[in-house]
Amino acid sequence: MPSIDLEQSIANAFDAQTTHLDLSCQRLTSIPEIITRLTNLKTLNLSDNQLTTIPTDISRLTKLESLDLSFNKLTDLPTSICQLTNLQNLDLSCNHLTELPETIRELSSLTALQLSYNDLHCLPEAIGQIVTLRTLILDANKLNRLPASISNLVNLEWFNLELNEFTSFPEEIANLTKLKHLIAGGHPFTLLPDSISQLVNLERLFLDDSSIESLPESIVRLTKLAHLDISINCLNHLPVNLGMMTSLSNLELEDNNITSLPESICQLTNLEVIGLSGSPLTDLSPLQTLSAQLSVDFLGVNLPPRYWTKFSDWQADWLLDEENAQIRKILIEYVGYDRIYQELAAVERDTWREYTLLEINGDVDVEPIVLLKMICPSTGHIHALRVPPDMTSAAAAITWINGGIHPDDIAIAT
Asked: CA-based diameter of the chain, in Å?
């Protein structure tokens, strides 16, 4: 129940002409009866309270256009709420709703319906009759299918259904040709249907954190798409004609199995950001003709244009003038110590048998690079391993590599 003070303050402020009322964060367990007499209300915010029910006489608020009931403890809706035929925005996010009444179709002016973080297992067929809807937010529920009627929402522009329980991409979405924003990640489906190409007005498509193994070639018909997030999936390759998606400005490909970029990527002249971390790429040269202002996110850093080439062409001497410490670490990893000691004129610190302790002069890492060069007696192959910078003898270095055991002790044990 509302406190006497709150009830009194509402009563004192009572004005038949009141159009906006904000009672968020008031720890309300029920809606004060006096509110239902404010018949000129257009906006009512009851979010972040402890409401478990909505009174049936809320239907008196016939002029209400926006109702925020998010962050409460509602388990169902009274059918009377569906008599608010002027309602345009209804926010029911973060409650405990398990279903919606069929009468929801009566909300004939509704343009935005937000149902994030509830316990919905299905939607009523009647939802397809709210043809005024432009925004439908359904993320973090328990949905595993959509009603066939969803395809009737021909004015829908923003649709969020990520983090539900879909096992395949809902085909019904393909009919929503006015969609501009589709957020559908967080599902285990492996394929996208060719019909996704019908969403010709899409500007943002989020399919991250799923199990998608390939993109249909038809996806390149989405020529208005500016932001594509396909990160954290199982992609092995990208569409050959990816360059047809000339509106792309942000392309997120992180954490996939992509080994190469299509040559047509050079046609994405509006590209501003591309995320490539966590994929086993070996060649960035298809990016070379794009703007030098392009942000290439690779292992958490923005790689400058000189790195947009085959990784095998990266040069050890770039370490000498690379100011970014994170990029230097990446360069060391991809060039390898074998090439580094050969190309950067390493200085010999000590030798012992087939082992040589080397030091790389120059400020190329956060601490000096000290390497132990080893020549395999049987194959003659040269290996170089990094050791702590305080090592002064080759024998001590090989002992450190062997976990504290001197090579002679290993021979005696054998």
From this structure: 98
- Give how far Cα 354 sits from Cα of 26, 91, 377, Å: 77, 73, 8
Rounded Cα–Cα distance for residues 135 and 90 (Å):
10
CB 282 within 8 A of CB 309: no
Least Cα distance to 80 among 98, 103, 46, 64 occurs for 103
Yes or no: say if 127 and 103 are a contact pair by the CB < 8 Å rule.
no
The Cα–Cα gap between 380 and 403 comes to 24
Question: What is the residue whose two structure tokens read 């012992």?
Answer: 352
pTM of the predicted model as reported, rounded to 2 decimal places: 0.86
From CA 223, how far away is CA 247, in angstroms rounded?
6
Q: 342-396, pLDDT tens digit by residue? A: 888 788 888 888 888 888 876 777 778 888 888 777 777 777 888 888 888 889 9
End-to-end distance of the chain based on CA atoms, in angstroms? 81
Question: How many residues can be counted in the chain?
Answer: 414
Backbone phi, psi, residue 184, to 5°: -140, 25
